[in-house]
Amino acid sequence: MSSSPVPLLSVSGVTLQYKTLQHRVTATYRVSFDILSADRFVLLGPSGCGKSTLLKAVGGYITPVEGEIRLKGQRVVKPGPDRVMVFQEFDQLLPWKTVRQNVVFALEASGRLRGKAADERAMAYIEKVNLARFADALPHTLSGGMKQRVAIARGMAMESDILLMDEPFAALDALTRRKMQDELLQLWEDTRFTVLFVTHSIPEAVRIGNRILLLSPHPGQVKAELNSDGTDPVDMRSGQRLSDRIHGMLFDDSEAVAGAVHG
Amino acid sequence: MASLPPARPEFVRDAALAEEFGVVQQPLTPWDRIRNSAFARKTAILVVLAALWQAYAMHLGNPLVLPTFTATVHALIDRTVNGELLARAGTSLKVLLEGYAIGLVAAFGFTVLAMTTRLGNDLLETLTAMLNPLPAIALLPLALVWLGLGNPSIIFVLVHAVMWPIALNTHSGFQAVSNTLRMVGRNYGLRGPAYIMKILVPAAFPSILAGLKVGWAFAWRTLIAAELVFGTTSGSGGLGWFIYENKNLLDIPAVFAGLFTVIIIGLLVESLVFRTIERRTIRKWGMQN
Ligand SMILES: Nc1ncnc2c1ncn2[C@@H]1O[C@H](COP(=O)(O)OP(=O)(O)OP(=O)(O)O)[C@@H](O)[C@H]1O
Ligand SMILES: [Mg+2]
Question: Which of A36, A193, A230, B264 has most Cβ atoms within 10 angstroms of its Cβ?
Answer without folding.
Answer: A193
